[in-house]
Amino acid sequence: MEANSSKKKGRISRVRHWCSKHFSDVPLLSWLIGAPVAAVLEDFVGTPLALGLGLPKVPVLFGFVLMLKKPLLIPSILIYMILIYILPVVVTAKLTAPLFNRLASKLLNVSGRLSVVIHLLLLYAGLHLWSSISAYRLLTLKLTLIAVMVTLSLNVINGYMGEFSCSHPGFMALGAYGASVFTVLLFVNDKIFGPAHLPAYLAPYMFPIALILGGCLASLGALAIAIPSFRTRGDYLAIISLAFMFIVKSMIENLEVVGGPRGLSSQPDLAALPIVFIWAVLCIWITNNFVRSTMGKALNAVRDNELAADAMTVNTRRTKIIAFLFGAFWAGVAGGLFAHVLRYVNPGTFGIQKLAEVLAMVYFGGLNSVYGSILGAVSLSLLSEMLRPLEMLKWIIIPLLLILLMIFRPTGLISFKEFDVIKLIQPRNNSREKS
Amino acid sequence: MRKLLVLLLSIGLLCLVFTPVSWGGKNVIKIGINAPLTGDIPKVGEGTKYAAEMWLEDINKEGGLKVGDKVYKVELVIEDNESKAESAVKANTKLITEDEVLVIVGPQASKQAIPAGEVANNYKTPMISPWSTNPATTKDRPYVFRGCFLDPFQGPVIANFVTKEFGFKKAAVLYDVASDYPKGLAEFFKKAWEDLHGPGSVVAFESFTTKDADFSSQLTKIIKSGAEFLFTPQYYNEVALIVQQAHELGWNKPIVGSDSWGSAELIKLCGKDCYGLFFSTHYASAGAKGKTKEFIDRYKKKYGYVPDDVAALTWDSLGIVKTAIQNCGKITGNIEKDRQCVRDAMAKIKEYKGITGDMTFTEDGDPIKCAVIVKISDKGEFEFYKSVCP
Known about the structure:
The complex is a heterodimer of chains A (435) and B (390).
Chain A: H1 2-23, H2 28-52, H3 64-69, H4 74-110, H5 112-131, H6 135-160, H7 168-187, H8 203-226, H9 235-254, E1 264-265, H10 273-292, H11 294-304, H12 306-311, H13 316-342, E2 344-345, H14 352-365, H15 370-386, H16 394-408, H17 421-425, H18 431-434
Antiparallel strand pairs in A: 1-2
Helix pairs in contact in A: 2-4, 2-5, 4-5, 5-6, 6-10, 6-13, 6-14, 6-15, 7-8, 7-9, 7-13, 8-13, 10-11, 10-13, 11-13, 14-15
Chain B: H1 2-18, E1 28-35, H2 42-61, E2 65-67, E3 70-80, H3 85-98, E4 103-105, H4 110-122, E5 127-129, E6 144-146, H5 151-166, E7 171-176, H6 180-197, E8 202-208, H7 216-224, E9 229-231, H8 236-248, E10 255-257, H9 264-270, E11 278-281, H10 290-303, H11 309-328, H12 335-348, E12 352-354, E13 357-361, E14 367-368, E15 371-376, E16 382-388
Parallel strand pairs in B: 1-3, 1-4, 4-5, 5-6, 7-8, 7-9, 9-10, 10-11
Antiparallel strand pairs in B: 2-3, 11-15, 12-13, 13-14, 15-16
Helix pairs in contact in B: 2-11, 3-4, 5-6, 8-9, 11-12
């Protein structure tokens, strides 16, 4: 038995070794160029290939849903996945690696920022092409990006600041309602707010203002918790913030102006994929800079030992307030986007269930890490979408996963790791080439 | 390693050989069911699923659905919406764009049916929500229908019934302010009652919040207000608590409810306290006749309990879907054309004879149908008392 397991381990490490030998010199740029290639390939030959393999349609979320519904199709789906996604991406990445290594280093020499923008454009192209195949993919992608924003903003408070805040659904609700009221009031003929005040063509330009307004409203709410909870930490803050969440929910339920428990609908259709993508990137970029700044380090100091931090001239009170408002702002923006993707909000959405979801994403992905938040949000969003056909079993599998994770990796999948963009987009030349 | 690979490959090839190639051929009609199988109201999802499966059984017994002179196989695509608004939207999008269903039945609760209806309307796919009572679900959406009457109708029905039956003049209302259905209905009832008996005739209008379990302060106020009866449009689990606590506090006047009472669970939770009370609903299970009785008996035999109104309404909605597809006359295989055709046929349905009453759709996609007043008998059965038509 032992020999067997060590043999297995040997095999895994051999695979890993093989991968690192062959792919360590592939820069991110090459991987990213592979994504649109695969998506274009799927666009052209996806349907005939899928039909040829006996699949009813192009597998929508990597065929997982289909696998669960019709297990007999698993081999076909695997072949499809290899032919459409894995092979093209790997081949393109490998083939373009030498060229793109040089390109990446040149780009980096010209300007780091330009290089980042080009990477992002490629990433967006890949996502856009991938999601253009089906409206269901598009919706899932948008909601996943929003989940990334919420998770990251909660990680600032729960991970970097080390407090346990439970008010994020409340902040989201404030942002969602703030942004919705703004856009509905100005651009929609609505029975609650009367006729539109501005022509509809202005709506896309005013949408950022709506989102920022939503974010600011959420920050204002955060200030309302931050001030009375100066002196509390740990459990007490958790309770206060939980109370805040319920206050927000009850408040909206009792506000007849915004529809009360019936919710607010007919938001204009403003949250297209590029808009959501840009806001998600902005959120990741700004948050990453924030947590790597002096302020971010001060946050870590407060988390590790508040007294010591105070002694080291960190203004702990100010640090905590800023982080709290910062996290709330992005949760509010994400809420505003959420409301405009669904084009309906009701207070019931922002309850305990949402809180559990977001917390699970934060702790699954990993505390104190931007990578972790992205990974946690993406994996749990996709997982819960893929496992939906299992109905009740899904609610056993996902919590079980969380329990296992907490046993084997108590701080999450990727925790306490810095997200260094420049390092990520560097050319991956082997050391001998460098010298 | 190599042996394993060979084995896997051969298994894979075998599977490939055995997969039916004609997936989703032209002779299949797909119907989407968007139901809350998990989440807050799993019982509702279960009722929906069971009714749909029974309906499919009937279709299969006939060998398929006959449209024009061709017989089509029917496939149900059941999606779980987890009782969440965003999941309902995702599920609808998936049903429409991925599974390419012809018609969608569901979601049940208004908080999911409103945003999901938006999706269905945008993609020009007919959708019928059996249970959603919020006017916004079908408002200005030509492709969205519903299978039940609305709250603005139910409120006056109860007000009129109590006035005629008991001759009362002072009403008390106890409702959940945080839940859209009870709140809406409470307000419609108040308006109707005050129209009948003048302003101030609702002497107590008390509220609580979802998941409250102690209603003694509200009930004490209601008892002191001198109301002659209590109207509480709550769900069955809360009704049991409210009724029991009211009786403990010495309330012995009638308590009247709405269609949300109509669950088999009510009697289990409430027991003798609920005997003799009245509520308005879509159909009465005890003493039912004809098709309704047939449905109830079959359901009870198969799943072991008397179906709730959700199951009955889902059954009727599926019946309407079937009639609409058959009235459409021809399935072309072009899904957009077929959806349009089914939608038009559905809007034209006149006096569909369902187990919950006759239905004709208005322009908004809301049915004109009768409400039933049910009395809970001394055996704990829901007995037909009176039918109130618009």
